[in-house]
Amino acid sequence: MLTLENVSAGYGTFQALFGVSLEVRAGEAVAVIGPNGAGKTSLLRVISKVIPLNGGHIAMEGQSLDSVPAHRVIELGIAHVPEHRRLFPRLTVEENLRMGAFINGARSRFDERLAFVYELFPRMKERRHQLAGTMSGGEQQMCAIGRGLMSGPKLLLLDEPSAGLAPVIVQQVFDLVRRIRQEGYTVLIVEQNIQQVLKVVDRAYLLEVGRIKMSGASQELLENDEVRRAYIGL
Ligand SMILES: Nc1ncnc2c1ncn2[C@@H]1O[C@H](COP(=O)(O)OP(=O)(O)O)[C@@H](O)[C@H]1O
Ligand SMILES: [Mg+2]
After folding, report:
1. Across the strands, what pairs with 186?
2. Which ranges carry the ABC transporter domain (predicted)?
C-alpha cells in the first residue's frame, strides 16, 4: 500500500532521515520503533509532506507522492494523527471530529463517518459536547484517532499515541490500535513504547539516528537480544 524508497528529509540544512526504505502492505499494522530523536516523527511528516522530500520516493497504492502537496495526501487515503494529539482544546469533541472531515469527499459523508466513529468509540459520543481540552489524556487520544478516521482513510499514521499517558491508559490506547486494525484499516505507528507496540503490530522497523537499523516480524524483534538490551531493559 505504502512504499518508501531511499527517503531523505530534514529541516533546512539539518538532515533527519537518511535513505529510509520501508513498506506497509494493505491490512498490515507496522511499527517504526526507536528512541527519542531517532526521526520517527520526521518520517511520518515526510509521508504527509509536512516536510519536503529531499531524496528518494514515496508511493501510495502505486501512485507517487513525490510531488503531491500536503493538503492532497489526505485525499489519497492517508490520515496523520500527529504527535501530542494537536486537538483544538476549546472546541468540543464533535467540533474536533468535524475538523477531520474537511476534504470534499468527506464532507458529504460526515454523518455516516461520525456515526461510525461514535460506534467505534462510544465514549466520544457520551462526551460529544465536552471541550476536548478538558478530557483525560486517553480520551483526547481517542478523539485524535477519531478525527483521523473522519476523512475515511485507508492508512492511518499514528505518532506515539501512548506518549505522556499513565500505564493503565497506555494499555487502553494499544487496545484502540487493535480495534482499528480489526476494522480493516492499515496502520503505520511510530512508538518509543517498544515492548507494548510490538504486541499489536505484525512487523516493525528499528530507526536509529535517521537510519533503519533492523526490521522483522514483531516477535523476532521482541526476542532480539540487541533490542531487548538497548530498548526493553531486559
Ligand atoms: N522542526 C525542527 N527543526 C529542526 N530540527 C528538528 C525539528 N524537528 C525535529 N528536529 C530534529 O530532527 C531529529 C529527529 O526528530 P524527530 O523526528 O522528532 O524524532 P523522534 O520523533 O524519533 O523523537 C532530531 O534530531 C530533532 O532534533
Ligand atoms: Mg516524535
Report:
1. 155
2. 2-234
User: For residues 34 and 144, what is the distance between their CA atoms, to the nearest angstrom?
Assistant: 22
pLDDT tens for 44-101 read 999 999 999 999 999 999 999 999 999 899 989 999 999 988 899 999 999 999 888 7
Total domains in the chain come to 2
Among 86, 53, 50, CA closest to 70: 50
Mutate which of 14, 32, 191 for ligand 1? The one with the most ligand atoms within 8 Å of its CB, which is 14
Domain that holds residue 104: 85-153
Atom of ligand 1 nearest to the CA of 39: 17
Q: Beta partners for 29?
A: 187
How close is the Cα of 36 to the center of ligand 1, in Å? Answer: 9
Measured in angstroms, how far is the CA atom of residue 113 from the centroid of ligand 2? 28
Tell whether 213 and 229 lie within a shared domain.
yes
Q: Please tell me the pTM assigned to this model.
A: 0.94
CATH code, domain carrying 32 = 3.40.50.300
